[in-house]
Amino acid sequence: MNLSEFKEKALHWANQFDVCCFLDSNEYKDQYSAYDFLIAADVQVELNCNHGDAFHRLKEFSETHKSWLFGLFNYDLKNEIENFKSKNLDYLDFPELYFFVPKYLIAYKNGNAEVLIGSESILHEIEQLCIPLNTDNEKLNIIQRLKKVEYIAKVDELKSHIIQGNIYEVNFCQEFFAENAKMNPVNTFHLLNRISPTPFAGYFKVYKKYILSATPERFLCKRGSRLISQPIKGTAKRSENIKEDDLIKLQLKNDIKEQAENVMIVDLVRHDLTKSAVKGSVKVDELFGIYSFPQVHQMISTISCELDPAIHFIDSIKNTFPMGSMTGAPKFRAMELIEEYEETKRGIYSGSFGYISPNGDFDFNVVIRSILYNSENQYLSFQVGGAITHQSDANLEYEECLLKASAILQVLGR
Fold it and tell me: Is residue 78 packed enough to be buried (19+ CB in 10 Å), middle (13-18) or exposed (0-12)?
């Protein structure tokens, strides 16, 4: 059985349970990734809580259950970190913090599948599984929460805050949604992952709620005593013409506006990491790296530090959350303006999901380029956005949003 067939069968197998998590690198080579993919299914024990003392409870949970933990951090945990309130609409209703110890865990690395939790017989069970015939989703009526003229007006207002010196940069997002949406989550994820394979892709089912993610971005990972963050800021479309594509890539690398966006977030991440770092250990390993994905080129920087032994690894996550690439600078004021100008709660969008290993290493993505679905109320949503700076052109920012939405719109038949 080839790798793609095994992954497809494994996800269908895992999806029979109320809770499962599939993390897929799509064979991108990454010096920090421990596995090609991980698939965790069913629940031994779980933690589900809202902001207040969520990070403290996760710390206790991780100390009590020194096992593999899979879970998610909702963007609105910011309300615990900075004492904010969120009053915007939320039709998805994801948990704010959810972690579970799986009954079954399969890891795939260097061409071999290994059962880390559970019986080896589940590999045979997966191999023998008959994948159901594909069932097309019903036609979806996808609506933009903001009209183009409304989006442009809000961007111009945010730029006025920049001119006044309130902020330097803010990540502003808009929602696309569909009501009465009937969707096959597993089949839709496989299509998304085929059209837009990315190194931090994933599928997370929490009872009746689903994350189908083609995210290219790592939020934070821990390897031994080292913390690594890789924010993305800077996007350019791909071209089928090789020479033109190379030129676009070079233009992105040398684009002053994109570099300015990126370096502001690099500085923010450096500041956030300092809260958890051994003094003097924070460093920028790569600045303005250009990486190519099927729809876009991205500018990605890498920042790392040594974790202070006195800091619990859960606190290192709290100290950097929410991620700088999805907030802005200064972070506190940017989050206030996000709450004021965006129409809906972000919820799990621009949050994170991933795993914690028994030895305290972890790897978490950034929930972007993701379809979010509540099968109970049949509400489907995805959001796209970008960094607004003094140099931003509102029309171009709008076009960049549509570029980022293109793979999802293709998957959903638009």
Answer: buried
Structure token pair of residue 343: 């129409």
Pair of tokens at residue 65 = 């259950």
Question: CA–CA separation, 92 vs 12, rounded Å?
Answer: 23
Please report, as a single letter, which amino acid is at residue 73.
F
Name the active-site residue from 96, 169, 175, 217: 217
Q: Is 59 a catalytic residue?
A: no
Q: Which of 78, 154, 233, 318 is catalytic?
A: 233
State phi, psi for 111 to the nearest 5 degrees. Answer: 85, 5
Cα 410 from Cα 11, distance rounded (Å): 22
Answer yes or no: 233 catalytic.
Answer: yes
Q: Check residue 136 and give its pLDDT.
A: 67
Each residue's pLDDT tens digit, 193-204:
999 999 999 999
Q: Which residues contact 93 (CB under 8 A, 6 or more apart)?
A: 209, 347, 374
- Ranges of residues in the chain with a pLDDT under 50 are none
